[in-house]
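--- STAGE predict ---
source: upstream dedup step, 1 unique chain passed
mode: sequence only
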Amino acid sequence: MAKAFKLIIALGVIVLLGWGITSGLGQVGDNQGYEPDQPIAFSHKIHAGDNSINCLYCHFGAEKSRHAGIPPANVCMNCHTEIRKDSPEIAKVKKAIDEGKAIEWIKVHRLADFVYFNHSQHVSVGKLDCQSCHGAVESMTRMRQDKMLTMGWCLDCHRASDVKVKGHTEPMKVSEQGGADCAKCHY
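--- STAGE serialize ---
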């Protein structure tokens, strides 16, 4: 009787561990709604929305690099030496520049370490708007993760999105061109 009880307990533990691992992995990248306070109250609504500043002006790495990047403080000062130069938030930017310190922004969109993602492939090759993955940034006073950014969410997009391929007159799905190949994002 004791052996059977131990076996039942062991099987129960294995089932619970398996369930915990698989349900946990299903949520990797799902920080949807994450909206941290930042060291400087930067509003995408004012910059990208009200003033129609193109995302790529500040996040210039997105066109040619794996990372979109957080803009250097000097990019802010391209405008703010003349506009709202006496704002307390701009004073924080000036102070960081004067002290030679980086502004310690809190990362909002975080993928798992075992995931490879390339912004330039999506922005320059795929011609995606930033809003496709980041939501209506132009309406966000404080940046938040709008989409799930899970593997399933990415694969759904790859299965639904067309891409033009040389030598083909009709567009093909991204998934048909290797966009569902595990080794593209996990290697």
